[in-house]
What we know:
About 45% of the residues lie in helices and about 15% in strands. By secondary structure, it is α/β, with parallel strands linked by helices.
Amino acid sequence: MTVYSHSRLSTFEQCRYKYKLKYIDKIPVPIEKSIEAHLGECVHAVLEYLYKNAINGKTLEMDEVIEKFSLVWAEKYSENMKIVRDLTEKDYFNKGVKFLIDYYLKHKPFQDGTIETEKRIWISLEKSFPHKIIGYIDRLVFNKKTGEYEIHDYKTANSLPNKEKFERDRQLALYSIAIKETYGREVPVLLKWHYLNYDLEITSKRTNEDLEKLKKEIIELIKRIEKTNEFPPQKSPLCDWCEYKPYCKAWGNSIPEEFVKKEKQGTIENIGTEKLKESFPTSSKYIVD
């Protein structure tokens, strides 16, 4: 059994070469992480901290939230982080502070029925299908007023997708399958994205028919991945944020000699380690998509 995730599926669709380096050859990334990934990781960590306190009956003061952000930022920051845009580390830090202040003022006292934060879920696509999907819900809420379960997702990206993107978004729709498997097929599930750069909340829903269709599409995609033998690079605007760009042949770069043999053979080693990484993801989870 191979454990898939939304990120893994998206990587295959965006660039098969990156997919091969990351998931098949398991070549370590040459870039630690981007400043955008760092920003997303820190904001997620602070919002998780805020809501865990709220679940336990404590509403943090704004000063406590910003102080926590400062501590997390300093703890996880590295001078080697990649900065693509013409901004400084301080600019990104200030963006994070603004995100949290805006969010705090809009949602205080945070007593909205939050059940869990960073909830790990498993999705079974079909009983006989050998592969599973793993995911992490930023925040799961049960709204007593509406009787709906809400899947909340925080975004720190600069871009704001159009409405069509949200109506066909795969990630949260997949997560809603797991929630329905847990709480009942007929329970209503609301999908919510918090675009912090715009101080904007966007909602969407899926019918059971939509989710059944999605399952079939994911099964076909995974079958295609499993049969794929050619992994050409695909240039796109996302390349500037790709941690494997220094190794990408599409940009005239090459893989270090120590990894060349492994890349050519396409071997899969340390399967147990890879499964462990899938179950307990690193900060790459927070890379802006």
